[in-house]
Amino acid sequence: MSRRPTSSAGGSRPFTSSAFRPPTVAGAFDQDTRYGYDNTYLEEEEEEESDTDDLFAFVPPSTADQQRNSQRQHPQYFLHNAPAYDQVFSNAAAPEAPSVTYPSSTFDPYARFPAEVAGPSSLFTPPVSNIPVDSPPSTASHQATSDPYRMRRLSTARTATTDTRPSRTSAISSREIHVNLPSSPPEKTIEVDLPESSRRKRHPSSTIGGETATLDWTPSMLEQDSREGSIKMEFDFDAVNEEDSPFPEVRASVSNIDDPEMPVMTLRMWVIGLILCMVGGSMNVFFNFRQPAPSVSPLALLIISYPMGKFLAFVLPITTYRLPRFLGGMEFSLNPGPWNIKEHVLVYIMANVAIGPPYAINAIVVTQLNYNTNVDYWFSVLLVVATQLTGFGLAGLCRRFLVWPAGMVWPQNLVTCTLLNTLHAEDDEEPGGITRYKYFLLVMTGAFFFFFIPGYLFQALSVFSWICWIFPNNVPVNQLFGVSSGLGMSLLTFDWSQIAWIGSPLMYPWWAEAHIFFGFVLFFWIITPAMYYTNTWDLAYFPLNDDNPYDRLGQYYNVSRVLDSSNRFNLTAYNEYSPLYLPATYAMTYLLAFALSTCVLVHTALYHGRSLLNGMKKIRSEQDDIHAKLMRNYPEVPDWWYIVFFVGFFLMMVVVVEVRHTSVPVWALLLSVFLPTLYVLPSGFIYAMTGQGVSLNLLAQIIPGTLLAGNPVANMIFKAYSVQTLTEATSFVQDLKLGHYIKVPPRATFVVQAVGTLMASFVQLGVKQWMFDNVKDICSPDQASFLTCPHNQVYFTASAVWGLIGPTRQFGKGSLYQPELYAIIVGAFLPLPFWLWQRRYPNSWVKFVSTPVVLNGVSYIPPAGGINYSAWFATGFVFQYLVRKRNFAWWSKFNYVTSAALDSGTVLSAIVIFFTLEFPKGGIYVTWWGNEVFQNTADWTRVALKQIPPGGIS
């Protein structure tokens, strides 16, 4: 039977096939409650399990009323009211077994190394406490393969094999009970053979003093068996004695035990984290200005930091140092033990919040180059720090809504947790099976070498528009089945980077994937082609799928033609030149963004309103799961710390815009920070349940474009502050949840996030300043090193369109796209019928519908193409539905490992290809049919359906 890793807190990979799993400290559980286990419930649950329950894995949280009603259907409800597991054998005449207690896991960084040990790689035995602790409850499994009771007949009597493999966290997850059946005696002897590695630990309900404990017990169910051989019953005490998450995705990825004394804020963690954060952040800033370019992902740094941590744990001295008494007399060690999972996850968190190029850097570059305004280093640093850390303060204030509840799953974190546990805690291995660590290495290696085929040698496998190769000049066929500018109805691609472009399909829950693909089919496979081929809004004169605006002559819109000498809007030049036209998918994206802006607020009020009110009153609307209980061992970060960050960095932003005379009034800053404050919870709910965040790009451009018309610099600053505050808030909350899963002290996460973001801002702005001071012709189209600044060009176009031309001319009265504004009203009423229906019929399928997910899931188009959705959904259907439904054991053990391995191998391969084959001396390219066939199609050249009439569109 495959189970999750048993230690998210283990510094090494403990072998759990023959070890008790130690519980957490006593304070983590309710001592007044007796937890029981009822196997009758399991049988009923298996009979009542429906395809709908499996289809909609971790469905979105329902209303508060539904949550209260659903508690009666939750396994915990039965567990708290069921007989104890020692009475499962209903016919047994045995006396009640004594209460079982076993110690909590501890970690002493100094006592764990014997005095005679000379190196950190030696084995050690942690101290054991004799304080009894109540066993936590079990989470009843919905899968037949997870039955905690398994029985099989043996031909001859045998005892448990002693596991001699070294284990630093000696824990037993299952025990073997051998029942010897003599021919005549009335009483049977049950011998419990414990592995040698676990004999120091005592099971909670027995007094096992030696290697074998003999209990007098006469279970009558065994009377019916013949006297030949013996019966070996394997009791899976993981399922009997443990409380766990109600969501199978979380149970498959996140450990439910903790070691509160594990060292976290170590010197080696800071050294590795800051080095990788600074190097990775600097590289991404450099890549931000180059085309083509890869990016250094936090997942790549997670893999790189693992051998670095193991190396430092091996070479650093284990000596304990003591500071002088006048400095506090604190003791510390450069090497407090093995490189552990909590140190590792803090390195990842530091990278995740700081490695990406700051969004505000685009506003700085565009202001400097396109609007000819001098921007010095210190102004840039203050602007970036203010936009980064205002969201940090906002994130902390949302913890009780987005971090602590069990229903806030955050799918991205499940992949990270699986990878971390794969590296640090090896899980159970069946005979002839493979560990998740070995599986990860194999898949990652295969993905690394395989990507050389679609990524370099045979690129047609990436742009696999095979129907377009057959009909290269048929425009409708290329638009419908194309990959580059088409709608991706061909479904196939062999490039994992194309499949996972919008996120790994093995990460999202199936119900969210079904929502997203339904929205994609409805809006982009049905409505958009219908509008395009009927030439609504003159869409047929432009490519079907493109992310560039056009003029009336069918050319890319030249923003410089509507600017005056002061870089302000020139109405006369605009009237002489052209209105701005949008391609079909771009127009559809704006329509959906208008609808989403109101839909997400109404949906949040209807479905989560009571929970929000209870949270504000500090009333818990959802019971704590095991992870929330374990986190009680650590002091929380006071809310006022986050309030200081939020208010302090907002005031810094006010000083920045006022001192530098950026023409952004203070009331506009208040409005710009109000938008992310309003949307952080709705966006967080969607992100936590589906892995898809809500963007403020549209609103953050329309509002300043209307209120500060004709001022592109003010528009950019407003947009950068608003969008980045929401983006950083959700990113910080996601990492807070990751720390919650790995049981990292919240204050350690707070310090790491703040320091990493602050340090990265200085370094990244330094890299940008050096490049613009030393690189010749940077951001010019013919720059020798391809430093053409593609992202900044898009940002400049958006600032000119919304800051100069303005939303009034684009969507106002009499404009071509005015009907799109009605989507705001439609979006406000869209959740109502589904909410009313599920209130009237709580058990209908309508309760699974989430309208914001349908609207928001397709927001990546453009620049994403149809293939990024169709191939993504096809892959998700295989893993998240078919495999999960038909082989849940394999899915639980390997699904997220597969996702992490494919992501890691592909990213590392892309970086190697870029730096070894594409970057040096202009690149080395393979020229043949497989790298050229897709370029000779109407899909690649973005041919429109209709030709522009002479003189342009009137």
From TrEMBL:
Question: Which Gene Ontology terms of cellular component type are present?
Answer: membrane
Q: Name one GO biological process term.
A: protein transport
Spell out the NCBIfam families in the cross-references.
ISP4_OPT, OPT_sfam
Instruction: State a single Gene Ontology molecular function.
Output: oligopeptide transmembrane transporter activity
Q: Where is the composition biased (Acidic residues)?
A: 41-54
- A Pfam match is OPT
InterPro entries assigned to the protein according to its UniProt record, in alphabetical order: Oligpept_transpt, OPT
Q: Where are the transmembrane segments?
A: 269-287, 299-324, 345-365, 377-398, 439-467, 479-502, 514-533, 587-608, 640-660, 666-688, 821-838, 858-882, 894-917
Compositionally biased region (Polar residues): 1-19, 63-72
Please give the name of this protein.
Oligopeptide transporter
Q: Does the keyword Membrane apply?
A: yes
Q: How does it sit in the membrane?
A: Multi-pass membrane protein
Give the family this protein belongs to, as stated in its UniProt record.
Belongs to the oligopeptide OPT transporter family.
